[in-house]
Specification:
By secondary structure, the protein is mainly alpha-helical. Among the domains are: 70 residues, no CATH class; 105 residues, Potassium Channel Kv1.1, Chain A, CATH 3.30.710. The chain has 23 helices and 6 strands. The longest helix is centred in the N-terminal third of the chain and has 21 residues. The radius of gyration is 50 Å and the shape is elongated.
Amino acid sequence: MPKADNTNPEHHSSCGFSASSQETSILRPYAVELAEESETAEEEAEDAGKDNDLKPLYINSTGINRSSSSVLSIQAGVFNTLSERTMSSLGYSIADSLKKQETSKSVAQKTNLYQEIVSLVKRRVQTNSEVTIGKSRHPVHLMALQSFSRMFRDMSNDLSVDLPEEKITPRSFCLIYDWMVEDTPILPRLGLLEVLQAASFLDIPQLVRQCQYCMENGFKEDSAAMLYFEAKILKLEETYREFLMRVSKFFLTLVASQEFLRLPLKSLLMLISSSSIGVNMELEVFMAAARWLNHHWPQRQKNITAVTSRIRFGLIPPWLLIQLQKPDVTAVEVRRIVSETEVRQAIHDGIAYTTTRLFYGADREAFMQHLRKTSVKPPMQRNWIYDRKCRHHHRMQCKITLDLTYETFVEYLNYVQMQHRDYWHSMEQAETSNVCFNCQAKKLDRTKPIS
């Protein structure tokens, strides 16, 4: 940078003097004197000197190049000592270098990381692991499994995992993975037990609780029966046999199925012992038991006493019990059962109870007193139903009855099989009374005017 011209009056600032010692000695007292005279005058002189120093920088573009202090003719002294200061102390900050409008605009345009990850998982793209169950392979995002399954969380980040097929089926794994990635997952009835078994194996507490809640509150009638049969396939029958106790109006539809004939003895006994099963009359329970016993007669013959002990013969009209013992009108399927000594005795006890009940009639208090004297315990009532299409539905006191034989019962089951799958919904609840709904319906039909 060229030296400043001393003849120029604009260069009478502190940066414009030569570096001789004589001039230095003259200037220093002079500067002190100026400072003592007037602070205002000093500020004006400094401002003027700054303006004079900046002019050469604008005139000469090379003036911005750094030069040594000798070239700038900077004089050493107390006034040339610069105190070090940070940009922050000068009023600058990093935040000021970003424009707020541009910053907010760029944030709004950024893709949400969580949504992007969820999208990848739901679309099953860019999977990073594979689960093998038997011969089936399932590409998955390991992160999704680790988020819910404690078993996967405790495992290393393996790219390939083999799971035992006896603990988790391919269908249950697909249902579980769908449950993990969906926002509002719905568990289907089909495969629910498989899901519960697999969720217990994979240690997914939240899914286990959801499955248990569904089974405790959402399964009755046909769904409860189907859940039991699913448990039977999975060899979990002992755990879920109690679901048969939830069958009511669906009982006769179940009796008409092949699955009923394949019931194990314990399951059959639990079913026909339940007071919840819905029947038109107690004799239907006996006929259902006879149907099961005759399915594999040589093998099941030894179970006659155990099965018939669950029949409440005291709820069957006495004339029907007498007819059961007539060999000329009784089918062979029934005859081979009632010929057993224990069964015949149970029938006789039933006849004694029902005739005594009919004898006392409406005097229920006297009848109950008789039961107390004889130490006879009255049988519990069933969940009586009324099927408008059932011809043999009659109460004990009804004088107009249609004899229910094994043949007519099978015929009725054939009719039920031919109806819609929800036919059992049409069966009405019937109170425990002497009112015969079938006879009432016939009376109404006779009183209707002929058009």
